[in-house]
Amino acid sequence: MNRSPALLFAFVLLAGCQTWSAKQQQTAPAAQDTPPAPAPKAAPQVYSSLSEDTVYSLLTAELAGQRNRFDIALDNYAVQAVKTQDPGVAERAFRIAEYLGADQVALQTSLIWAKNDPTNLDAQRAAAIQLARGGRYDESMVYMEKVLQGQGDTHFDFLALSAADTDQNTRDGLLKSFERLLVKYPKNSQLIFGKALLMQQDGDAKGALTLLENNPPQPGEVAPILLRARLLQVLDRGDEAVPVLEKAIKQNPDDKRLRLSYARTLVEQNRLADAKVQFAELVKQYPDDDELRYSLALVCLEGKAWDEAAGLLQELIEHGSHVDSAHLNMGRIAEERNDVDGALTQYSLVTPGNDYLPAQLRMADILVANGRAAEASKRLATERTAEPDYAVQLYLIEAEALTNSDKNDQAWQVLQKGLKAYPDDANLLYTRAMLAEKRGDLGQLEKDLRTIIAREPDNAMALNALGYTLSDRTTRYAEAKALIEKAHQINPDDPAVLDSLGWVNYRLGNLPEAERLLRQAFAAFPDHEVAAHLGEVLWAAGKQREARQVWIKALNDQPDSPILRATVLRLTGSETL
């Protein structure tokens, strides 16, 4: 091919390493049918600081990029960045590497860019961020200080956030680097913000909040306010975040981040009506933002504003955004309105993804509850054929729907069929074990759970289920305790395991330990079954008044709990407290 070096160089200079214009293509000389006689060997011609070979390599890279061969584009640019040390080439290489997530190349080219363009604050910042991502924090700070000295927008939050998933020593080192820079620049708001982020990551939310409160943000700075609000929520002081955000919104009424944080904080404070107003204002300000529209729809759903929610969800469907979630929630609205067919129609429109299984479960529940179990079974069988990756979950959904309607024998047959197709699936085995307990078949329960434990010795759920059943339904207390203690070693804070461990200690007569464990379980998860167990232990320990208080509260929350009513009747002689 006959190259035109001058033309290629003009391409690099005038197009800024972008695509070759149509006009340039039209004026390029046509390829010759017969190659010219070979020219005598000579040193490559150089146009400005780039040789002919470099320019040609960069053109090749750009053309490769047009054809989605980004690997070639990145490789050519990276090679030429190292070879030429040209800041423009290095920047282009860095941008491509960053886009592709090629971390090592991004670091290498950002350093070349920063070295050869020392007054360019973007270059210095890029090098700092890449070094921080690579864990080279002290080196990173050198470049960030250059940005500080250049009065640039420093973005120290990138440095702090890069340490989030690192080890403690790395975070400690970065924190010390921040502190050293703060000695030189004590009022630099970006340094203060970065240090607060690091303190938050280190678990020192109180210290981070104090740092921010002692150093108010500069006018127009929003990130420190957002962090302060988040820290207040972490410290269970979310009500204090509301006035902080309200004041900031008055000063920055058009800032999307502030109003969104305020709206979410109102949701967390269960001020749904106020949150709805804020989300509605956001949708008004940003009518093309379907994320905001979806959030407003969820707030309307939570507030039972069915008509408003349905209108927003329909808009999302028409926009092609959050379509499956919209159909799922439209189905829930139809259920609330007792529109069975409408609900089934909406759920049937949910395609495979995060919302698919919840939709299938709701359809199965509706059909079985309405005496259409055969239709539910047929639908799920069709889905298992169409979506084999979901087959196991669809067996479980069918079994659950049948169990919820006390059709245990039919649920058992579904699980048998599922295990015939997937004999090693732990979820199917566990579900059959739980159904076996309801059927009074403790032998099958133990067989299934021990099969799971043999394959997965650290399966805390199976260990706990077997241990609890043995402690509750047999006198094999020592064996039960060993199983539950192993589950406790694996998941020491799991309320279900704590409940089981408390219960087996009660069975063994260890009342103080049983009470301690059950109080801990009830504090973490005030479930009706835990309440029944805790109340019984308190009753046995002579604390009948407190036991009654625990039961009364639990019955108010779940008046139809069979275990609560059975426990109260057995111990007091009456279901009335």
What keyword list fits this structure?
two-stranded antiparallel ribbon, globular, disordered N terminus, 577 residues, 74% helix, mainly alpha, 33 helices, 2 strands
Describe this structure in words.
It is a single chain. The protein is mainly alpha-helical and 577 residues long. 74% of the residues lie in helices and 1% in strands. It contains 33 helices and two strands. It has a two-stranded antiparallel sheet. Helix 1 packs across helix 3 (52-66), helix 11 (189-201) runs antiparallel to helix 12 (205-214) and helix 17 (290-302) packs antiparallel against helix 18 (306-319). The longest helix is centred in the N-terminal third of the chain and has 17 residues, at 168-184. The N and C termini lie far apart (96 Å). Residues 1-48 have low confidence and may be disordered.
Task: Write a brief caption for the model.
It contains 33 helices and two strands. With 577 residues, the chain is an all-alpha fold. The longest helix is centred in the N-terminal third of the chain and has 17 residues, at 168-184.
